[in-house]
Amino acid sequence: MMRYLAAWWKLSRVPFLSVGVFPLVLGFVLAWRWGYRGPFGLYLLAIVTVVLIMWMTYYLGEWNDLGGDRINQEFNQFSGGSRILAEGVLPAWVSLILGYGCFAGGILSGLYLYLQYQTGPWTLILGGIGIFSGFFYSGKPFRWAYRGMGEVLIGFCYGWLPIATGFYLFAGFFSHQVFWLSIPVGLSIFNVILINEFPDEEADRTIGKRNLVVRFGKERMIDLYMGFSILTGLFFIKILMMFGRYPWLFVLSALPILLILWNLVMAWHEAYRETKRLELLCRNTLLVNLSVTMILTLQQTLSP
């Protein structure tokens, strides 16, 4: 039983749920700041629905990408799937069943949320966008991740979409602040998926998964990565200055800024060509996204 639970935990990528839940909480906090609050059940159900949609995407992605994962020899802990199916720890049909189960669960959870709490018609639209994007991220016929559109979709679905959803569920409208807050979050999560594609390039090319790295090559995409890293840092600092100034918060903000600078130095020195340094770059890029989101959440919590 413990072996299967450990396999499920890894297949479900539980720690990586944070990249979707944290922006949703940022939307909640922004609504609190505007004076909009709701019952605890609404907060909990919104998180459950978002987790189900992410799990649907993860599970079906494991199934759809299995061919590439099996031949991938350059993966690290941030790329190449969970390895649970590729290494035969669990049969592939488990991931397919879990994916469709979460698909159904996400729809039912979202409908119940809308009907029980009367959160407004955009609830269904926002949830529908998330489900549609996640289902066809690697699934036919659209397969966004195979057509060079997956990275942009990730930036949107883990940037603007959860922040806007968290805010709308309680406020009933959209704020311009959602747009500003979503820029560094979206740019940084774009970089997460982009750099995670580097180890998988050869396997992705073999199976016809034409993401941005396969289409344009590592040399060009590391330039894009560096450009988006700089923009992430600039927008992050700009937003901190726009929505409240706290000296200690700027001290705390040194963490993502130093990580961004570290990543830029490694990228400049072509760390993506070395397995261990590339894995470190993948890790740092994820930490940039999480730290940026958490610090912006703290800022909105404390702002008058």
How can the largest sheet be summarized? none
Radius of gyration: 19 Å
Based on Cα principal axes, name the global outline: globular
Note the gap between the termini.
50 Å
User: Helix tally?
Assistant: 15
Helix percent reads over 70%
Oligomeric state as shown: single chain
Strand content: under 5%
Q: How would you explain this protein's 3D organization?
A:
It is a single chain. By secondary structure, the protein is mostly helical. The protein contains 15 helices and no strands. It has helices at residues 2-12, 18-33, 40-64, 66-71, 92-117, 122-135, 150-157, 160-171, 176-196, 201-207, 212-216, 218-242, 247-252, 254-268, 275-302. α2 (18-33) runs antiparallel to α3 (40-64), α2 packs antiparallel against α9 and α9 packs antiparallel against α15. The mean pLDDT is 95.
Labels describing this entry:
Farnesyl Diphosphate Synthase; 15 helices; 0% strand
How is this structure best summarized?
The protein has 304 residues and is mainly α. The protein is 74% helix and 0% strand.
List the helices and strands and how they pair.
Blueprint: H1 2-12, H2 18-33, H3 40-64, H4 66-71, H5 92-117, H6 122-135, H7 150-157, H8 160-171, H9 176-196, H10 201-207, H11 212-216, H12 218-242, H13 247-252, H14 254-268, H15 275-302
